[in-house]
Design goal:
CATH superfamily of the largest domain: 2-enoyl-CoA Hydratase, Chain A, domain 1
Order of helices and strands: HHEEHHEHEEHEHHEHEHHEHH
Number of strands: 9
Helix content: 25-40%
Shape: globular
Strand order of the largest sheet: 3-4-5-6-7-8-9
CATH architecture of the largest domain: Alpha-Beta Complex
Structural class: alpha/beta
Length: 287
């Protein structure tokens, strides 16, 4: 025991667990700078030193994009653990742990409201809930958001953040890919804009379905976007991948993303895009 610990123990000193360095500081994953948590959150979880865009939750994202007074759609009720899946833990136990650590019952949340006064439905995928994985609940929530947009005859904006399909639901999770794809086709047939905002990370079956079917694709700076992991691709093609491969800026340069927009400018950019794509009154009457 060192001198400091001996003195501290003799004085009966104990740190207040409610106010520790862990609560006050956060390390930027990009530049490794230590930042005040309050300053970081006030800056929308964007590092003020290097502009690295950190991950944010579904509620924070909806609050950022939608005007005050938006309505949260009820989350769909689905059959839980249809395959009675168990690996190192039961799937039901993983769901309980995820729900205890998150404000919502699953990884996809839908808000119906306005963006700078323009009607819009916004669906948000939350990576903090089991890696934003796409299971039946996510698929049904996505479809419910599209149905609300069809009912309101307004644009549908989806913010993606996922590690892919949820393996604990097997083929049932993969079936959400065509289900979501059908809904994007219905939006197109109705002449309603479908906009995708890609955030870090967007991978796997989500990328292979609704994440890449938008009329316009907007990405946050530096976010990872792809299907398979870089190591898998590199081992398969046996070639070294280019610098920045699968990052937003690389995909923008090669035409897979329409624009890369900072989080602080995202709402204004969406408002401008939606204003441009908003269906005319004649189209609504025809529908």
């Amino acid at each position: 025991m060192n001198w400091f610990n001996r003195v501290r123990n003799s004085l009966g000193f104990s740190a207040d667990k409610k106010s520790t360095e862990k609560d006050l500081w956060i390390k930027c994953k990009s530049c490794q700078e230590m930042l005040f948590v309050a300053e970081y959150e006030e800056n929308l979880c964007v590092c003020p030193r290097c502009d690295h865009h950190g991950r944010i939750g579904a509620d924070a994202r909806l609050h950022l994009l939608l005007d005050d007074g938006y309505q949260l759609l009820d989350q769909p009720v689905v059959t839980e653990d249809p395959l009675k899946f168990k690996d190192s833990k039961k799937y039901t136990d993983r769901l309980k742990a995820a729900r205890a650590a998150n404000p919502h019952n699953d990884a996809f949340v839908v808000g119906s409201g306005e963006i700078n006064g323009s009607p819009a439905v916004v669906g948000v995928q939350d990576f903090s809930f089991m890696g934003g994985s796409m299971g039946m609940a996510v698929g049904m929530a996505f479809c419910a958001g599209a149905e609300r947009a069809l009912t309101r005859k307004c644009p549908y904006v989806v913010v993606t953040a996922a590690g892919g399909a949820r393996m604990q639901e097997g083929i049932l999770s993969l079936m959400q890919m065509p289900r979501a794809t059908v809904m994007t086709r219905r939006l197109k047939a109705a002449g309603l804009p479908y906009i995708v905002v890609l955030t870090d990370p967007t991978t796997g079956g989500v990328t292979a379905s609704y994440a890449m079917l938008g009329d316009v694709h907007i990405a946050e700076p530096g976010c990872l976007i792809g299907f398979a992991g870089q190591r898998v691709i590199q081992d398969t093609i046996r070639e070294k991948l280019p610098e920045g491969f699968q990052r937003a800026e690389y995909l923008h340069k090669h035409g897979m993303v329409d624009m890369v927009v900072r989080r602080h400018e995202l709402k204004e950019t969406l408002a401008s895009v939606l204003d441009y794509l908003q269906p005319s009154p004649e189209t609504n009457e025809a529908a």
